[in-house]
Amino acid sequence: MARAHGEPRDFFISHASTDDRWARWIAWTLESHGWTVELDVWDWPPGVDFVSRMERALDDAERVIAVVSEHYFTATFARAEWDAAYARNARAPGRLVPVLVADVPVPDLFASLVQIRVAGLDEAAAEQRLVWQLLGGRPDRRPPFPPASTPAGKPEFPTPARPARPPVPAPGAGRSRPPVPAPGAGPARP
Questions:
Q1: Pick from 136, 138, 130: which is nearest to 67 by CA?
Q2: Which residues pair with 61 in a beta bridge?
């Protein structure tokens, strides 16, 4: 659907073409939870200037999700989107959100950004982690008290209490869209 320049979106999804299926899944998941998303394969019709639309999307989005896989940092346009979003992140921290869909090393310059890791998770767990971390990631109940000691050689890690997956309302059910956490609102916890 065509939209006017300057019409804000909550997220722009940056991805390598080889990760198109992941980009579509992430975009669909975010929209099903009430966020607005710009995704090239959905929103940019044939014949438009790709670079111009990419620049416009980066300007209009509150946050940029980078779909990070082994292909992301070698794909020409994905890398250009990341570089532009990273530079803008310096002015407004929290704008660039790496979503790791594969267990790959992230270049040192970008490793300090808090990441959302969905690699290796099943669909329900990946959706819960994505949404939970984008909302701020704070538990809604007290975490369990750590044990006084653990058997030798068997470290025990506390399992974070996570809120239940938010229900997905029926289309057109009049839901309000969840707020996009303000950039710099604090790191999300995996």
A1: 130
A2: 9
Model confidence pTM above 0.70: no
28 by Cβ neighbours in 10 Å (0-12 / 13-18 / 19+) ranks as: middle
Residue tagged 């019709």 (tokens): 45
pLDDT digits (tens, 9 = 90+) for 95-149: 889 999 999 888 887 788 888 999 999 999 999 999 989 988 677 778 788 887 6
All residues at 6 or more sequence positions from 177 whose CB lies less than 8 Å from its CB, including other chains: 10, 34, 35, 36
How far is it, in rounded angstroms, from Cα 69 to Cα 85? Answer: 17
Structure tokens at 5: 């320049």
Q: Could you write out the DSSP letters of every residue in the chain?
A: ----TT--EEEEEE--GGGHHHHHHHHHHHHHTT--EE-HHHH--TTS-HHHHHHHHHHHEEEEEEEESTTGGGSHHHHHHHHHHHHHHHHSTT-EEEEESS--PPPGGGTTS--EE-TT--HHHHHHHHHHHHHT---SSPPPPPPS---TT----PPPP-PPPPP-PPTTS-PPPPPPPPTTS-----
The pair of three-digit structure tokens given for residue 76, joined into one six-digit string: 């020409």
